[in-house]
């Protein structure tokens, strides 16, 4: 007899989720209410939202703090360019193919870097990304160190005409970000998600309950790598040009992504989305400051880490109990009789206050 | 003969990598902090030396008399004001705070000095060489740099095992709570460790600046070389760190001998090989 069952939603998520879906519908209609530049900016925002969500999944949920996400962004981009330039594959098919290649490459990378613990893991992933970059620079078929562009014939095979192509790529960018977000939500709602919460709260206790810690982490790492590779492929399909330094840039694909996740809030799915919004607001207002702007961003991230380590969304969620996505796990009595209000088993907060 | 020469150059270059690694290893040992800004602090020291030599007309080696204490003071202040607040059970804050610091230092240097390549001029000593016979020769400067690396590591080793400060370092590393109960002020001990680490960083930065061109963006690669030397040598062993630096230097110069594009890659591949075959490093003392 099952006397209790698990509910995920809260009153906040019953309001927040429909609002979020409404927002998505408005964004999907963007080609009718904004110009080409607006669409390009939104496309970039979706890419960063996806990358920051993936980094948050790794660092905030699986304890895998990586500084090497650019390895998979660049790998995906190079996979798409090689497949369409050298094998003649349609670039649109190159995106899922890049995801597959990213997942396959993630297995040996994990086998090596998982031997390093904590912060050393972070730098280890960075070394892997550097190795990828240096190999890409030796790859003469794609222009070696100076890179290459997609020829007009390949670009034309995406869609007929520039406007149609940009619209298609816009929807792909939005669609990919939604797919990444949905995949993360489903993963966190699955038994792997429960295992991740257990590992995060106490790794030793999780092991003693029979959770295979390294296996769970491997699953997350492979999925996040596949996601980053697909996002990378799409970013460079929009740029139409690739070079090792741009594709494997630690600043563009990891530093900014980390700042976004930190400012928005690590360890909650909503955090990186809020962080992306703040980041683009800051960028659009401060970008004329040049390198000063990056210093401001770094300082803001440090201040958030020290004074509000759960980020902006974490502060809001702790104070007001907000959640957009139904991820909490709450035990409730099912049978009639005195209501059994068991305490929360797990909330999406990243860590206990210390 | 070319190959022997490449290996000798690699060994001497390894001394510099040992210096990069020693400061990193020291603070990891004392407070389990991995300083992502380590490479950028090396570059900061190089620019400090550039300013000091330019303003006072000193040679690079004499400028160490100012740069070393300056960097040590920066280290002490950084630890007291910023990094001590980030330390704790959680891994993320120190990692992300030093990551933010790295971006701030890089862009600050870019703002102040532009992206142009700079170099410290050391005068006649730059081209002086000692003949070894058989057509081989070693530069006086690389030799001096290697000697300084060995002396610095020997000094750190002596300090750790023979002085009250070293005892405080080891006690805090073993158990910070008990060390506090015994009357040690952890915040002060950590700040002294960071000061010492940045003093070594100052040595590394000045020798780097004399050896090659530098610009604000080269810090992360120096962090990676230092980190690779630490892992190849084995965590927690200072002499192992030097050995790791030497192996890395030799791998890089052998790689460069094969093809200039392979210099850095060869070092990374050696690191990955060690990680695959002997993840505890070649001369480990600490576990995990």
**What is the rounded Rg of chain B?**
19 Å
Count of separate DSSP helical elements of chain B: 11
Task: Determine Rg of chain A (CA atoms, Å).
Answer: 21 Å
Beta fraction of the residues of chain A? under 5%
The share of residues in helices of chain B is over 70%
Structural class category of chain A: mainly alpha
Strand content of chain B: under 5%
**Treating each run of at least 4 consecutive H or I residues as one helix, how many helices of chain A?**
16
Q: How many strands in all of chain A?
A: 4
Low-pLDDT sequence parts of chain B: none
**How many strand units of chain B?**
2
Biggest sheet overview of chain A: 2 strands, antiparallel
Which fold name is given in CATH as the topology of chain B? ABC transporter involved in vitamin B12 uptake, BtuC
The neighbouring-strand order within the major sheet of chain A is 1-4
Query: CATH class of chain B, please?
Result: Mainly Alpha
Distance between the termini of chain B: 41 Å
Shape of chain B: globular
Strand order in the sheet with the most strands of chain B: 1-2
Low-confidence spans of chain A: pLDDT under 50, at least 5 residues? 342-354
Fill in the keyword field for this structure.
heterodimer, A: two-stranded antiparallel sheet, two-stranded antiparallel ribbon, 16 helices, globular, B: 288 residues, mainly alpha, ABC transporter involved in vitamin B12 uptake, BtuC, 11 helices
Overview of this protein structure:
The complex is a heterodimer of chains A (354) and B (288). Helices cover 71% and strands 3% of the residues of chain A. Chain A is mainly α. In chain A, the strands form 2 sheets. A two-stranded antiparallel sheet of chain A has the order 1-4. In chain A, strands 2-3 form a two-stranded antiparallel ribbon. In chain A, helix 4 crosses helix 11 and helix 8 packs across helix 9. In chain B, a hairpin with a 2-residue loop joins strand 1 and strand 2. Chain B has a single domain, classed as ABC transporter involved in vitamin B12 uptake, BtuC. Chains A and B meet through helix 6, helix 13 and helix 15 of A and helix 3, helix 4, helix 9 and helix 11 of B.
């Amino acid at each position: 007899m099952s006397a209790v069952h698990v509910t995920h939603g809260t009153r906040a998520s019953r309001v927040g989720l429909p609002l979020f879906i409404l927002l998505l519908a408005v964004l999907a209609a963007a080609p009718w209410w904004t110009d080409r530049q607006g669409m390009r900016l939104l496309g970039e925002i979706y890419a960063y939202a996806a990358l920051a969500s993936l980094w948050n999944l790794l660092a905030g949920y699986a304890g895998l703090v990586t500084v090497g996400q650019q390895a998979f962004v660049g790998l995906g981009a190079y996979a798409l360019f090689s497949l369409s330039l050298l094998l003649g594959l349609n670039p649109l098919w190159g995106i899922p193919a890049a995801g597959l290649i990213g997942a396959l490459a993630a297995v040996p990378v994990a086998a090596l870097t998982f031997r390093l613990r904590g912060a050393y893991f972070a730098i280890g992933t960075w070394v892997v990304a550097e190795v990828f970059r240096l190999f890409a620079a030796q790859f003469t078929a794609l222009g070696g160190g100076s890179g290459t562009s997609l020829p007009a014939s390949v670009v034309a095979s995406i869609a007929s005409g520039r406007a149609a192509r940009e619209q298609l790529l816009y929807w792909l960018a939005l669609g990919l970000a939604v797919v990444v977000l949905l995949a993360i939500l489903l993963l966190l709602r699955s038994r792997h998600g429960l295992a991740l919460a257990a590992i995060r709260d106490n790794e030793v206790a999780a092991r003693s309950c029979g959770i295979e810690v390294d296996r769970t982490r491997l699953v997350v790492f492979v999925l996040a790598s596949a996601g980053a590779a697909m996002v990378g492929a799409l970013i460079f399909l929009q740029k139409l040009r690739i070079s090792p330094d741009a594709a494997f840039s630690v600043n563009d694909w990891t530093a900014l992504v980390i700042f976004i996740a930190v400012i928005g809030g690590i360890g909650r799915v909503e955090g990186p989305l809020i962080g992306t919004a703040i980041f683009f607001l800051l960028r659009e207002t401060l970008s004329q400051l040049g390198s000063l702007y990056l210093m401001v961003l770094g300082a803001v991230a440090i201040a958030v880490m020290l004074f509000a380590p759960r980020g902006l969304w974490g502060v809001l969620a702790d104070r007001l109990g907000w959640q957009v996505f139904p991820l909490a796990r709450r035990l409730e009595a099912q049978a009639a009789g005195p209501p059994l209000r068991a305490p929360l088993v797990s909330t999406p907060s990243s860590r206990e206050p210390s | 003969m070319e190959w022997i020469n490449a290996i000798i150059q690699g060994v001497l270059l390894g001394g510099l990598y040992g210096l990069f690694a020693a400061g990193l290893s020291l603070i990891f040992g004392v407070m389990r902090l991995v300083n992502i800004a380590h490479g950028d602090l090396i570059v900061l020291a190089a620019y400090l030396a550039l300013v000091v030599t330019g303003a006072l007309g000193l040679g690079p080696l004499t400028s160490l008399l100012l740069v070393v204490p300056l960097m040590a003071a920066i280290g002490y202040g950084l630890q007291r004001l910023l990094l001590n607040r980030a330390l704790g059970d959680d891994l993320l804050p120190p990692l992300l705070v030093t990551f933010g610091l790295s971006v701030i230092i890089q862009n600050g240097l870019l703002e102040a000095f532009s992206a142009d390549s700079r170099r410290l001029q050391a005068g006649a000593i730059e081209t002086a060489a000692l003949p070894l016979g058989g057509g081989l020769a070693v530069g006086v400067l690389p030799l001096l740099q290697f000697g300084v690396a060995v002396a610095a590591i020997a000094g750190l080793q002596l300090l750790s095992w023979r002085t009250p400060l070293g005892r405080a370092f080891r006690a805090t590393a073993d158990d910070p709570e008990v060390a506090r109960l015994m009357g040690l002020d952890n915040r002060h001990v950590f700040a002294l460790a960071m000061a010492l680490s940045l003093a070594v960083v100052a040595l590394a930065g000045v020798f780097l600046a004399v050896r090659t061109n530098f610009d604000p963006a080269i810090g992360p690669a120096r962090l990676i070389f230092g980190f690779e030397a630490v892992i190849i040598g084995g965590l927690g062993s200072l002499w192992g760190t030097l050995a790791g630096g030497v192996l890395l230097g030799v791998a890089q110069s052998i790689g460069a001998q094969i093809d200039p594009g392979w210099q850095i890659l060869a070092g990374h591949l050696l690191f990955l090989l060690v990680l695959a075959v002997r993840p505890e490093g070649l001369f480990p003392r600490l576990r995990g």
